[in-house]
Amino acid sequence: MKSSEHRTPAGGEHGPMSIGALAGRFGLATHVLRHWETMGLIAPARDAAGRRRYGTVDVPRVAVILRAKEAGLSLDTIRSLVATDDAVMRRNILREEAEALRSRIAAAQASLELIECALGCDQEDFTQCAHSRQVVADRIGADAAVRTPVRAPAPGASPAVR
Hints:
two-stranded antiparallel ribbon, mainly alpha, disordered N terminus, elongated
């Protein structure tokens, strides 16, 4: 086994962990930790040979980053959250993220309703379904929905006699 593959016990109880040990603990590729370091999310110590050494503070930091990513936060937002000691600023960031999430949930709910409506339509063409037509009318304005679209004649076709 290469020395770079040596794994210290989880949590680093017996000394600093290598990048491979920390990545392995969380099922990550080592390049992910390097990227997070570049972004300023983590700051491992270095040994005399310049190798990264992760201490006991890095384990919960990685767990927090992963949990925040699972919650849909961007790495930039996570960096802002972990970089500040200002509780008011942290709460403001979280409020903005909560509002953005509520908007995404509302949009996803509307999409699901549209799809479920189309699935439940008994028309061959779901766009002819009364509910689907009402959704379109609501979206574009009721007066625009009742107008019949005028189709231009196909190129080379003679206009219809009225």
